[in-house]
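Intended use. Records like the one below are meant for learning the mapping from a protein sequence to its folded structure. Do not use them to infer anything beyond what is encoded.
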Amino acid sequence: MTKSFIDQVVHELEDQKAINIIPIDVSDLTCVTDHMVIASGTSTRHVCAIADNLIKELKNSGIKPLSYQRDPNGDWMLVDFGEVVVHVMHPRTREFYNLEKLWGPAPEASSENRPAV
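Structure written out for the chain above:
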């Protein structure tokens, strides 16, 4: 279900004109979820509309979120589907928290950064 579900989530986010959509595999990093999908809206109203429409469209497909949370300011909405957690964020909030760096692949260590043995 996960690969096709991620594709469905990305498709719905694209339909709502979300920007910078990034799926991240976190299955080796946490037991909370297998994947995160991070996307941005152009305003707080857009962020809320993207997440609300994602929930609505997936419910129409028979998929209900386990939970969802809305930042009081509308800067960040989290929609938890179990195996996939979707973060829809205002660009300034996304830049501040930088989830891609936190949960993304580790940078390759170069030999010049390794300690001498």
